[in-house]
């Protein structure tokens, strides 16, 4: 495994977060040497891993795209392939591709206070290697690439068809004119159902309970008008700003006036499939944004239900049978293929291990510093976007903060920076990293993530303006520079 023995910054992950970090580092800290580690053989992260039919963004590309690289395609909601191409183009344009070490997994990282460096243990197709860096940025995402959440279902071994998980979609899966049951009601399921509906003999979504599903236009009409008037790049910046504020305002209204928010969502669904189906299958018992709201561009899920190429069964699964799935109420869903869209396994740091001067770092026992660093861990930041808005909006704010920290370290001659709790801070109530989000995958993994406290800077706000305000200062007395 060839490459530099020591660099200023190592970015772990070449997905949407890692490419953004590399571009921002190159633009704002051109004197810093860096390398990007990517365990896969191609960049793209999520958009390279997932291959299931219909994979697409669940945020509009005006805000999921980069502020420094305008998204100029017409589609507001884009396919996974289009997003990967956009990331490849960005990496090539900013000279990042040649700085990515593909097929290289971070196994462990050890910090030494004696020489203020991280020593990274790596593995790849050419064997093991070591790399030293002054600063480590984790752009590894938040879920395991080893496999999705795949709970064993009663009777699963008796099913005579094929069982697949979307994270490991087989290339040879032939679902044409087959009966397919998709277990789940999140973003993956609502994407898969309309994509399969036109080619299967029947596709059925089996959900334990309903999810909030919002119908959005595939193409933004205002963006189309602006593209004609001012051109695609200028239109991108205007629509991005509009959508940024619209997302925050929508979230605020949903939390403060949930009944009004529900009415907008429900009325749109009623117009396609009718009140009866909506009440039975698309009226959740929890409040909006307790879990992420799924986007259905053009209402394609509901169009498939209306034309009866897809249907929905809501209730608890009793067991799998040789020919399908039996529900607790006795309903039997015939299936040749069962897709377990049961979610992700969340992890921190790409499942590598970390230590500071020989003491293992347990992220779950740390405090989150501004949602981007860990208490007591020097020269490390991590990329985690918004959960109630486009991921990238927060990622770019994190990257800006990282660059300003590196610049400040140079200005004052510091080799180390560590978020350091003041006396008494450790007595703060330990709140979840993503407080207020009740999604199962978040709750299952809460112990792996750092806790929020009850005052700045030990917070992880999910509001854009609050986040920008929180990230203003890189010299707040809590970051200890040495």
Automatic annotation (TrEMBL):
Keyword RNA-binding in record: no
E.C. code: 1.14.13.-
Cofactor(s) required for function per UniProt: FAD
Residues spanning the membrane: none
Top-level taxonomic group: Bacteria
Pfam families: Pyr_redox_3 (PF13738)
GO molecular function, one term: monooxygenase activity
Keyword annotations from UniProtKB, A to Z: Monooxygenase, Oxidoreductase
Enzyme superclass (EC): oxidoreductase
UniProt record similarity statement: Belongs to the FAD-binding monooxygenase family.
UniProt-recorded name of the protein: Flavin-containing monooxygenase
């Amino acid at each position: 495994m060839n490459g530099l023995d020591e660099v200023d910054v190592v970015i772990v992950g070449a997905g949407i977060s890692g490419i953004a970090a590399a571009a921002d580092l190159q633009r704002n800290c051109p004197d810093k040497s860096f390398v990007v580690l990517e365990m896969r053989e191609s960049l793209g992260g999520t958009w390279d891993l997932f291959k299931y039919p219909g994979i697409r963004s669940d945020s509009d590309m005006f805000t999921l795209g980069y502020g420094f690289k305008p998204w100029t395609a017409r589609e507001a909601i884009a396919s996974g392939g289009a997003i990967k191409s956009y990331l490849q183009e960005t990496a090539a344009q900013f000279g990042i591709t040649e700085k990515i070490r593909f097929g290289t997994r971070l196994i462990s990282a050890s910090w030494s206070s004696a020489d203020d460096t991280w020593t990274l243990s790596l593995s790849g197709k050419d064997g093991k290697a070591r790399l030293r860096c002054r600063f480590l940025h984790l752009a590894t995402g938040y879920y395991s690439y080893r496999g999705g959440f795949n709970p064993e279902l009663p009777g699963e071994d008796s099913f005579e068809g094929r069982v697949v998980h979307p994270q490991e979609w087989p290339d040879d899966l032939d679902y044409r004119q087959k009966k397919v049951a998709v277990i789940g009601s999140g973003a993956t399921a609502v994407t898969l159902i309309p994509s399969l509906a036109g080619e299967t003999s029947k596709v059925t979504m089996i959900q334990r309970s309903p999810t909030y599903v919002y119908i959005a236009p595939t193409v933004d009409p205002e963006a189309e008008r602006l593209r004609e008037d001012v051109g695609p790049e200028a239109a991108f910046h205007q629509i991005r700003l509009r959508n940024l504020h619209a997302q925050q305002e929508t979230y605020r209204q949903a939390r403060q006036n949930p009944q009004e928010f529900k009415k907008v969502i429900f009325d749109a669904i009623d117009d396609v499939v009718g009140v009866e189906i909506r009440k039975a299958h698309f009226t959740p018992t929890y409040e909006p944004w307790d879990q992420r709201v799924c986007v259905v561009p053009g209402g394609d899920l509901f169009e498939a239900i209306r034309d009866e190429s897809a249907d929905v069964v809501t209730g608890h699964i009793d067991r799998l049978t040789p020919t399908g799935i039996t529900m607790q109420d006795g309903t039997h869903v015939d299936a040749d293929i069962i897709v377990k869209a049961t979610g992700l396994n969340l992890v921190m740091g790409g499942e590598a291990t970390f230590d500071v001067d020989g003491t293992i770092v347990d992220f779950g026992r740390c405090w989150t510093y501004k949602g981007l660093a860990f208490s007591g861990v020097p020269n490390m930041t991590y990329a985690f976007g918004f959960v109630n808005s486009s991921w990238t909006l927060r990622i770019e704010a994190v990257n800006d903060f990282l660059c300003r920290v590196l610049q400040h370290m140079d200005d004052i001659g510091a080799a180390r920076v560590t978020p350091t709790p003041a006396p008494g801070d450790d007595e703060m109530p330990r709140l979840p990293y993503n407080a207020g989000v009740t999604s199962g995958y978040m709750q299952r993994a809460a112990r792996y993530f750092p806790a929020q406290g009850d005052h700045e800077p030990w917070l992880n706000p999910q509001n854009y303006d609050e986040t920008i305000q929180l990230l203003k200062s890189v010299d707040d007395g809590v970051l200890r520079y040495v």
